[in-house]
Amino acid sequence: MIRSADICNHLYRLARERNGENVEIELNGVPVLLLQRHEDADHVLRARSDNYRKNMAWFRQALGASRFSEDGEAWRIRQALTHGYFTRFDREQTCTLARRYATQAVDRLMRDSAGGATALDDGVLRTMTVSVLVENFFGIPYAQTGIDLQRIAELMEYGSAYSFVPSGETGRLYLDGLRHLPALRRRVLEDLRIFRDGSVPAGPMLHDMLVADADPASDVVLEHELLTFFAAGAETSAATAGWALYLLARRPQVQERLRQQAERIASSNEDWGWSELATFDDLADFLSETLRLFPPTPIIARLAIGPDRIGPHDIAADQNVLISFVGIQHDARLRPDPWSLHADGTARKGAATGVNTAFSFGPRICGGKHFALVELMAFLTVFLLHARFELTTQDEPRYHWKAQMLREGGQPVRVIPISRPVDALATRSGSVVA
Ligand code: HEM
């Protein structure tokens, strides 16, 4: 039996052994077609998306029905509710927030390393991303919400544990988890009550969500949308930041070249923001390669509604189809040497690039893609300006999946301060870190 937590290790193995091929596999007794070809993923996610519904029973069980898990009309209502807010955000404000919280995060990581830590603390990166998310979309500092992100992460881990367990088997295999799940969900939903009771100022997005929640004709539940929003929006970006730091540490020359460019940007305008970062092409390439080599959501699940054909495979109704972004993004037909970082200007060209694939595509594309890219560009620029990143082990990663792909044991990176003229590092909030 494949434990859900191990799924990424299998995805990387299949990407090497059956490169460029779709594979019929059995996951815990369930026959599954695993797509590793971009053209076939495009068929399922875009061309025939009407025939493939999302298959997220596990996620719904842990986090509740939300925009992320639902299909058809239930999804359209939820998508219409939040999509405009997620896509039409103020990029300069996002950069300002990302600079502030990345400065705090890198400061903390440097102190951890000075104290002997040999791996990055995931919690520091998650606090950074959730802080930007909450303040950007709800206008209050995350620290004032009292939300315990650790509990949300735990809930997602339960959700992930059920991912590849055939229906009917859940109880037998995860009895212990099932016992704890209701109490944990209750605690998390209580944490989110402040968004309902008036403690959080009802900005436009929260206002619309409250109206939908109160509408007897809709089954939108505010807390379910929020929970998914925090889970989908904070954890993935934090995982990406972690993989980016690992890749910088693995490629010191690329790191140094990017740092010199970041310094040029910071010295051209100490108040740098999105207008400057939008033209930082080498960093955008590096980010795309991070997402290609280490997609934080490495796999997504669909269920066929009616019969279809994918290449030589006949698809029957209720056939499980998994799309492996790991397989697609390492397809040697599309890129020579797909296992290496391409820091030569080809990173965002052609099919199956990180930036075009890892956020999915078609109608169910990630709602927060542009927000994630803006904040990650700012996080990485701040990191490069403040610190150097060194590997603490040369071992290849072992992967751990809990709704996003992490590295077992944490990213083996040491964070070392760089001394530089202090005024070049002033953030818009006025805080300065040497
Ligand atoms: C690097 C960071 C991120 C990655 C790699 C990522 C990846 C993904 C992927 C692959 C999906 C599609 C799942 C599927 O088709 O089954 C998705 C959906 C979604 N993501 Fe993201 N995501 C990221 C950050 C964010 C952020 C920051 C937000 C919120 C601001 C967000 C909000 C959403 C939403 C709302 C959906 C559901 C879209 C829908 O079905 O309507 N994501 N994400």
Layout: helices, strands, pairs:
Blueprint: H1 7-17, E1 23-27, E2 30-35, H2 38-47, E3 52-54, H3 57-63, H4 72-87, H5 91-114, H6 122-138, H7 149-161, H8 170-173, H9 175-191, H10 204-214, H11 222-250, H12 252-268, H13 274-277, H14 281-293, E4 299-304, E5 308-310, E6 313-315, E7 320-324, H15 325-329, H16 354-357, H17 369-386, E8 387-391, E9 399-401, E10 405-407, E11 413-417
Parallel strand pairs: 2-7
Antiparallel strand pairs: 1-2, 3-4, 4-7, 5-6, 8-11, 9-10
Bound molecules: protoporphyrin IX containing FE (HEM).
The site of protoporphyrin IX containing FE (HEM) has 22 residues, from helix 4, helix 11 and helix 17.
Protein name: Cytochrome P450
Family: Belongs to the cytochrome P450 family.
InterPro entries: Cyt_P450 (IPR001128), Cyt_P450_E_grp-I (IPR002401), Cyt_P450_sf (IPR036396), Cytochrome_P450_monoxygenase (IPR050121)
